[in-house]
């Protein structure tokens, strides 16, 4: 998080930074183009607090199902679908979304199984309300979440708004596959989504 | 209460929660979100009580809530709540200065704000947006809490009006603006605007809280109402290869078995049993 920068021309130039926003050019006031009022009203920015340390997540722990995994980085494919981790044994975080612990739904996905057997999120479906999920971040902090719901959805009815929609607090979404395996499509028919909120 | 400063959100914390719900994990449809705001410039700090109508034992208390405060959201079970304000330190059994009833519905967020000057103080119930902004956009609104500005205008430099002639003690609708670097033009009642270069995040929802400051001045406090991924993935996720699925043989194994005769078939069957044992063991 960036502090507000008051420019030299206090009457005109001020720069405000919104939470969660990236200020790309915080020292470029628009004062030169602003009209000059006869008796300028002083407009200031309330202190937005200290710069936020947006430390990336590095590890996820889910004690009740024995998960302890480093976190890869996930992207989307050309069709916009979330790409799974390229390692069956590790979960991945979606960096285009919130950092776990920041406001919004942070997204972590992992495989339920490989071609040969269970993968990192094989037991994700067992998570129940109240179970703990911890995410370690690169700055050495650990963010604790508690599971609030576990749902299974057909992939063709994936509830995008519920899973990825805005949240006013720090939340977490853990995603894997579930339901029947469609061998012709080589794909599970369902996704299992675990919802968790920061403690 | 968890501080929002970790995210840099410009939220002043209320003095503290004396008592609240230990809300058990519940489905989103069973709980809603409620927060409180003090936007009355000449009203001293207050203690705010939020009492469940259905469960008199359930109470959230915020103490020492002063002008400019926007509290964190509280998870509350759906239902009706009485929100009352008393001068800070007043006996909670004394009549409140002001109270209102707010209905909290599932999977929603509301702000109860003390607005206007003390002489005409009111409690306003404001709906907060939890809907995803259009792709590549952010959502912004204005809470006009500055009595120094009879009205306030906020627009982006590219011409999108966020609030026009918004009277003191009112709230604008949310407006979607392109995410990224932009410039807000903020002015009080027809005065020349002050330009504020900002960068807003895609998928985020903000309230710009305008407050009195420094005599006749204005202070703009950005509050992050909610956030979502700047890129929303489409559909589900392919997070399984089927190695524990059990059931019928993979088509490929059957085809290979048919093509290669009995030995391959036996191999296929063995591998199938192996998978099934593995699956049963893992459960």
What amount of the residues of chain A lies in strands?
A: 35-45%
| CATH top level label of the largest domain in chain A | Mainly Beta
Strand content of chain B: 35-45%
Q: Any guess at the CATH architecture of the largest domain in chain B?
A: Sandwich
Question: If you compute it from the alpha carbons, what radius of gyration of chain A comes out, rounded to the nearest whole angstrom?
Answer: 22 Å
**Largest sheet entry of chain B:** 4 strands, mixed
State the name of the first-level CATH class of the largest domain in chain B: Mainly Beta
User: Strand order, biggest sheet of chain A?
Assistant: 4-5-6-7-10-11-9-8
Structural class based on helices, strands and sheet pairing of chain A: mainly beta
Largest beta-sheet details of chain A: 8 strands, mixed, barrel
Low-confidence stretches of chain A: 1-37
User: Which sequence of SSEs, written as H and E, runs from N to C of chain A?
Assistant: EEEEEEEEEHEE
Classified in CATH, the superfamily of the largest domain in chain B is: Carboxypeptidase-like, regulatory domain
Superfamily (CATH H level) name of the largest domain in chain A: Sortase
Q: Number of DSSP helices of chain A?
A: 1
**CATH fold title of the largest domain in chain A:** Sortase, Chain: A
Strand order, largest beta sheet of chain B: 4-1-7-8
State the domain count of chain A: 2
Secondary-structure content class of chain B = mainly beta
Number of domains of chain B: 3
The termini of chain B sit apart by 39 Å
Walkthrough of the structure:
The complex is a heterodimer of chains A (199) and B (283). Chain A is mainly beta. Helices cover 3% and strands 37% of the residues of chain A. Residues 1-37 of chain A have low confidence and may be disordered. Chain B is built from 2 helices and 16 strands. Chain B has helices spanning 251-260, 262-282, and strands at residues 31-39, 46-52, 59-65, 74-77, 79-87, 98-104, 109-115, 122-128, 137-145, 151-156, 161-167, 175-178, 180-188, 194-200, 205-213, 217-226. In chain B, the strands form 4 sheets. Chain B has a 4-stranded mixed sheet with strand order 4-1-7-8, with no helix packed on it. A 4-stranded antiparallel sheet of chain B has the order 3-2-5-6, with no helix packed on it. Chain B is flat. The model of chain B is unreliable at 1-26 and 248-283 (pLDDT under 50). Classes of the chains: A mainly beta (199), B mainly beta (283). At the A-B interface, β2, β3, β7, β9 and α1 of A face β13, β14, β15, β16 and α2 of B. β3 of chain A pairs parallel with β16 of chain B.
């Amino acid at each position: 998080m960036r502090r507000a920068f008051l420019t030299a021309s206090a009457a005109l130039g001020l720069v405000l930074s919104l939470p969660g926003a990236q200020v790309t050019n915080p020292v470029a006031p628009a004062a030169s183009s602003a009209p000059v009022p006869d008796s300028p009203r002083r407009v200031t920015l309330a202190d937005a607090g200290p710069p936020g340390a947006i430390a990336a997540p590095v590890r996820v722990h889910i004690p009740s199902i024995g998960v302890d995994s480093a976190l890869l980085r996930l992207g989307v494919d050309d069709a916009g679908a979330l790409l799974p981790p390229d390692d069956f044994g590790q979960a991945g975080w979606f960096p285009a979304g919130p950092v776990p612990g920041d406001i919004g739904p942070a997204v972590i996905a992992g495989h339920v199984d490989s071609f040969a057997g269970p993968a990192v999120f094989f037991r994700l479906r067992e998570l129940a309300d109240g179970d703990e999920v911890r995410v370690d971040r690169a700055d050495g902090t650990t963010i604790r979440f508690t599971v609030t719901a576990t749902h299974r959805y057909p992939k063709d009815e994936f509830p995008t708004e519920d899973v990825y929609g805005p949240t006013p607090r720090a939340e977490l979404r853990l995603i894997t596959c579930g339901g029947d395996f469609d061998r012709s499509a080589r794909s599970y028919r369902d996704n299992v989504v675990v919802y968790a909120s920061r403690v | 209460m968890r501080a929002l400063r970790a995210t840099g959100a410009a939220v002043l914390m209320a003095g503290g929660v004396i008592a609240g719900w230990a809300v058990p994990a519940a489905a989103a449809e069973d709980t809603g979100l409620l927060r409180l705001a003090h936007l009355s410039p000449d009203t001293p700090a207050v203690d705010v009580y939020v009492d469940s109508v259905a469960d008199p034992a359930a109470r959230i208390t915020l103490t020492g809530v002063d002008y400019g405060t926007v509290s964190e959201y509280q998870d509350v079970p759906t239902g009706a709540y009485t929100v009352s304000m008393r001068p800070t330190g007043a006996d909670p059994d004394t009549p409140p200065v002001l109270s209102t009833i707010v209905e909290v519905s599932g999977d929603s967020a509301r702000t109860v704000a003390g607005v206007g000057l003390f002489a005409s103080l009111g409690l306003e119930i404001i709906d907060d947006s939890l809907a995803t902004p259009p792709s590549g956009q952010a959502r912004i609104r204005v809470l006009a809490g500055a009595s120094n500005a009879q009205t306030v205008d906020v627009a982006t430099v590219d011409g999108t009006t966020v609030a026009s002639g918004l009277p003191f003690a009112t709230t604008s609708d949310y407006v979607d603006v392109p995410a990224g670097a932009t410039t807000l033009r903020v002015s009080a009642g027809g005065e020349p605007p002050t330009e504020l270069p900002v960068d807003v995040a895609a998928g985020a929802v903000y309230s710009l809280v305008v407050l009195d400051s420094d005599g006749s001045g204005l202070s703009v406090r950005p509050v992050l109402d909610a956030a979502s991924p700047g890129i929303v993935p489409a559909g589900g996720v392919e997070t399984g290869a089927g190695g524990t699925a059990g059931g019928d043989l993979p088509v490929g194994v059957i085809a290979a078995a048919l093509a290669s005769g009995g030995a391959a078939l036996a191999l296929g069957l063995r591998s199938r049993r192996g998978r099934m044992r593995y699956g049963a063991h893992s459960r």
